[in-house]
# Entry
Amino acid sequence: MRLFARVLAEFIGTFAVVLIGVGAICADAALRITGAPGLGLLGIAIAQGLAYAAMISATGPVSGGHLNPAISIGFWVTRRLGTLDLILYGAAQLLGGVAAARLLIWMMPETLWRAVSLGTPQLGYDFTRTPAMGMEAMLTFLLVFVFFLTTARTGLEFPKMGGLATGLTATACILFGGPFTGASMNPARALGPAWLSHHWANHGVYWIGPLLGGVVAAWIADRILLPQAD
# Structure
C-alpha cells in the first residue's frame, strides 16, 4: 500500500474520531443550555466508541487503523512499524485532531464551545497530575492491549472484529475514566482541542500517560501473548 494512502487514512480516521468525540461533548452542552436532557457521559462514551469502531474498521485494511500515537508507538517499539512510518503516522494523527477542532470552532457558536473548552480533557475534582497520568496510562493500556491482540497477529488479514472490540473498550474506558481525567487515551484527541481553545492545563498528562500505557501494552502483547497465539 502506498505510503501516501496510509498516511491519508490515518489523518481522516483520526479527524473523524476527534470530530465525533469532541462534537458529542459540545452537543451535550448545547442540549443542556436549552434545558433539554443532555447526552450525558453514556452518550458521549457511545459516540466516541462508535467513531473508533467505524473508523478503525474502515482504515484498518489501508493503514492498520491506528488513529492514535499511543498505538503507533506501541507498534514501533515492537518493530511492527518503521521509524519513518511512525513519524508520518504521528504527524497525520495530530494534524487530523487539530483539523477536527478547527472545523468545530468554525461551525459552532463561540459561547458554546468555550463553555466546555472545546472538549479539552480536564482533571476531575481534587485529581492531581500523577494519579491522572496513572489513570490515562491504565486506560490506554487497556485500549492498546485490545487493539494489538485483535489486529496485530501476523499472517492474517485485518480482522473485522478489531474495530468493534477497540470501540467497545474505548466506550467502557470513557465511562470509567471520563469523570476523573476525561479519558483521552490519545494525544491527538487532547492536542487539537487544547491548541484551538488555548486550554493547556495539565496537558502533559495526556501525552505521558497514554504513550507509556501504549508502549507497555504493546510490549506485553507482542513478547508474551502473541507468540503463543500465532
